[in-house]
Amino acid sequence: MTTFSEQFPIVFQALNIGFLQTLKLFFVTLIGAIPLGLIISFGSMSSWAPLGFLRPLLKNLPKNTKLTWWQRFQIWCYVDFKPIRIIVRFIIWVVRGTPLMLQLLVFYYFPGLVLGKNIWGGGEAGRFLASSIAFIFNYACYFSEIFRGGIQGVPKGQQEAGQVLGMTNRQIFFKITLLQMVKRIVPPMSNEIITLVKDTSLSRIIALQEIIWAGQAFLKGSQGISGAIWPLFFTGIYYLLFSGVLQLLLDGLEKKLDYFKA
Q1: What does the mean pLDDT of the chain come to?
Q2: Fold classification of 4-47+82-259 (topology level)
């Protein structure tokens, strides 16, 4: 096949199939990462300390008591050591500090190297499952920082006002904190969601047949077409159209939330 008119139907069909895979990965990631990110944000803000009940005893120490750095460290370990917060923030630091492509490779290949078998199963379904879990975990960590900033950005005075009105902690969160958090996080969440659209292309590193993989296949040779670079330009059109629609939807959501002035 040498003419464009002969190649186009074949390429168009392959790109559509690849784009459907891209859409699946995008929506699965969003559905999994948003609730998981909220849970992780609670962990990163956890104030639970195993020996926190000893804190009142320290108030009995004379104010002029001089403590060495070692004694101060011991007091911190006994009273202010918050294991959940430390562990969760360390995980977030690792995930945000390493490339998503590297995480995809680790998620897909590492279990097989350790256990001696492929836990994801074979074929496209196994690669999609591994990609989905890697993307969900990665974006949940990013979303968690956005959620944490939104929650901590709500003035303490409003939460205290809820307590004065006799509201429970759950009521304060859902009726005061959550509403204001949503307003604050829409702009940064929009940026991450648009970035996710483009990041789905990284899944081709483990041979997931998303749209970039489909377009690149014709450059290497596929279905009688070889050395054709123009399919890759069409993949860009798919991304631009999808990102444009998403941006319009997210902008509309932000305008709808303008009724609430945070």
Answers
A1: 87
A2: MetI-like fold (1.10.3720)
Task: Render pLDDT for 89-127 as a digit per residue (tens, 0 to 9).
Answer: 999 999 999 999 999 999 999 998 888 888 898 899 999
pLDDT in tens, 172-223: 888 888 888 888 899 999 999 999 999 999 999 999 999 999 988 888 877 6
pLDDT for res 54: 63
202 to each of 64, 80, 99, 207, 208, how far by Cα in Å? Answer: 59, 41, 10, 10, 9
- Say what the pLDDT of residue 261 is: 56
Torsion of CA 55, 56, 61, 63, to 10 degrees: 90
Going from N- to C-terminal start, the domains of the chain cover 4-47+82-259
